[in-house]
Amino acid sequence: MNIIGLGQAGCQVAKAFSKFPQYNTWGVDVHKEADITIKKRSSHEEYDKAFPSLKRRVTLEEGPLYVITCGAGDISGGILRLLEQFAHRSPTVIYIQPDTDLLSEHQKMQERVTRNVLQEYARSGRLEMLYLLDNNCLERGVGEVPILGYFDILNQAVVNTFHMLNIFRHSQPVLGNFIEPSTLARIATVGVMDVDAATEKWFYDLTVPRDVVYYYGINEEDLKTDGSLFKQITEFVKSKVKEKINVSYGVFQTSYDQKYCYCIKYTSVVQSSLKEK
Question: Which helix (H) or strand (E) holds 212?
């Protein structure tokens, strides 16, 4: 899988993916520490007008392409030009929404424009998928996070979640009833669930979901000996079924001692921040 991070936040997440051998990663930013350093521009609009070609500087391998960015910085103005250069690879975007309460009015406008344009790109089919993540939701999901290493911890939660979902989606479940999400539902988010407590922690407050999928990771011993597990899982899944929402699941054997579950929620509806409504 190929990962391109745009801007400081995107570069940091791409770097966190690089610890796994399955990912071919690139960071694009104005700082010399980036894998690809581009010229600093004065505004969001200038990055859109003068974003450089990356085709000769990024060597993509076989497999999907994910592009990661955060909308608050000026450099996110180049995201559409970047995506156009790799449109033939049907890219997926992971969009990280910062804490908008801490942004200036100008930054809030840039963030809102970037997020909404990417959603329209996804709805039109120019993106394979758009995953929305919110740093506030991430923090709630991870728990109390110290100041030192704050973003490293949040970024690692993102990487671990997508990595395990990639593994599960390329593995054969021992049990499940997977329903293929609607091709119209190209806006999504991810989350984690405590299996025993049946508590979900989503990384974005996605509204009007159309499809929800749960990926359970259970060790071999529990799969062999826990007679209540099947009922526990199926009753939970049934409890989530609502009108016009498809809910499905898969159970996968793992070598980990602890049971865990990762999940994806899909929608075809453009998401607006509660503060924008």
Answer: strand 211-219
